[in-house]
Predict the 3D structure of the following.
Amino acid sequence: MLFHLFFRSFIQFVIDKPLFLSVIYSLLVAVPSLAVGSRRLHDTGKSGWWQLITLVPLIGGIWLIILFCQPSDPRENRFGTTVKAA
């Protein structure tokens, strides 16, 4: 009986709909967010791989915000023509 209660509460915790929906939402939002971030970094002349800097605790996220806030490169860079060049 005790095992059944534990198992049932564990299953409800794992398959809980709000948790399930939040995981689905996170996965659906992750890919476009990475694409937009890469596009913004390409506009400044940097590689999209700079997004991995967020893996560095605390300072990584701050540095990525600084990179996102930099102005676009006014001329064509190695990633193609920017909006300002067009």
Observations:
- Residues 1-5 have pLDDT under 50 and may be disordered.
- DSSP finds three helices and no strands in the chain.
